[in-house]
Design goal:
coiled coil; about 170 residues; about 80% helix
């Protein structure tokens, strides 16, 4: 039996570097350390500075490209397909990968449909063939039953005739 692990062998063999800019080949732990250090070093902004960004976020929930231009203009210039897709749709990369996996799985299942249809057609052909054979056998059985009834009638008539002859002979003696 094929397992889910076996069916994903192609996806496991493809290695794509993370296209997010500013990574510089850092591991996720190093990135999280760098993010926490940046948060500690950034001065706390006043409420007036945060208000337009929050209003903009509430006004346009599906398009965050304007937020990106405010916070990191270099990111917008060099954004990759994966980064823009995840930022605009609010999907983290692992969910995008999961969706791609599900899509590829569905495509594989769609490729199996013609084979299944062919198997169904073959099964329908076999069923029709057996139904035809069954109809022929029913006709043969019906004709045999009629022949048997005729033979029984002849035997019964012959027996009655013999019995009648025997009684006649007994009466003559």
């Amino acid at each position: 039996m094929e397992t889910a692990q076996d069916s994903l062998w192609l996806q496991k063999t493809i290695v794509m570097p993370d296209p997010l800019p500013g990574d510089n080949g850092k591991t996720p732990e190093e990135r999280s350390k760098g993010l926490s250090e940046r948060k500690e070093n950034v001065p706390i902004q006043s409420a007036k500075m945060k208000e337009p960004t929050e209003m903009l976020l509430a006004a346009t929930p599906m398009d965050t490209s304007s937020l990106l231009t405010l916070s990191r203009p270099a990111l917008v210039r060099r954004s990759s397909f994966r980064a823009s897709m995840t930022n605009n749709a609010f999907f983290p990369p692992h969910e995008v990968d999961e969706l791609r996996k599900n899509y590829n799985e569905a495509k594989r299942e769609l490729l199996k449909i013609p084979e299944l249809q062919q198997a169904v057609e073959m099964a329908q052909f076999e069923v029709k063939k057996f139904e035809d054979e069954n109809a022929v056998l029913n006709q043969v059985n019906a004709s045999l039953r009629r022949d048997l009834e005729r033979a029984n009638d002849r035997v019964r008539e012959a027996k009655e005739a013999r019995t009648a002859l025997e009684t006649e002979m007994c009466q003559q003696l």
